[in-house]
Design brief:
Strand 1 and strand 2 form a beta hairpin. The chain has one domain: SO1590-like (AOC barrel-like, Beta Barrel). The chain is an all-beta fold. The chain is built from no helices and eight strands.
Length: 134
C-alpha cells in the first residue's frame, strides 16, 4: 500500500553549463543542482540534469537526483530518475525511485515523484512522493 508524502525542495545551488550551442538559442546543457528538502522528507538532494532548450526558451530534461536524509522515522539515501519539461513558465517533473538504490533504513524503497512549479515559486518547489517500503 503506497504512502503519500509531500513537501518542498529549495534550490541552494545551480551550476548550469552549455555543452552544445546549436543556433537560435537552441542548446544542450548540464546542470549540477543542490536542494534542501523539507516536509515528510527531510535532507539534501544533489542532482545532475541534462537539458535541451528550444529557440523559444522551453526545455525538456532528464536527470538523476540522490536524496540523503530521513523519510518519516527512517534514514538513508535513494536515487530518483526523472524527466520533465519547462514551457517558459512552469516546470513539470516526474520520476521514480531507481530500483535497488535505497540504503540503510530506506533499503527496499519504491515510489514515484512529481513536482510542478513556476517562477513565482522559485527557489522553492512543492513535490508529491508516493512510496512503499518493503
Amino acid at each position: 500500500m503506497a504512502i503519500q508524502a509531500s513537501g518542498t525542495m529549495e534550490i541552494t545551488s545551480w551550476d548550469e553549463k552549455p555543452y552544445l550551442e546549436i543556433d537560435d538559442m537552441r542548446k544542450l546543457t548540464q546542470a549540477s543542482v543542490t536542494q534542501t528538502v523539507s516536509g515528510e522528507l527531510t535532507g539534501e538532494v544533489t542532482s545532475e540534469t541534462l537539458m535541451c532548450y528550444a529557440a523559444d526558451g522551453s526545455a525538456s530534461f532528464v536527470g538523476l537526483r540522490r536524496f540523503v536524509g530521513t523519510l518519516g522515522q527512517r534514514s538513508g539515501s535513494f536515487v530518483l530518475q526523472e524527466d520533465g519539461t519547462f514551457d517558459g513558465v512552469t516546470a513539470k517533473v516526474t520520476g521514480f525511485v531507481v530500483p535497488g538504490s535505497g540504503t540503510d533504513d530506506l533499503g527496499g524503497l519504491t515510489g514515484t515523484f512529481s513536482s510542478s512549479s513556476t517562477h513565482s515559486d522559485y527557489p522553492s518547489m512543492p513535490f508529491m512522493f508516493d512510496y512503499d517500503l518493503a
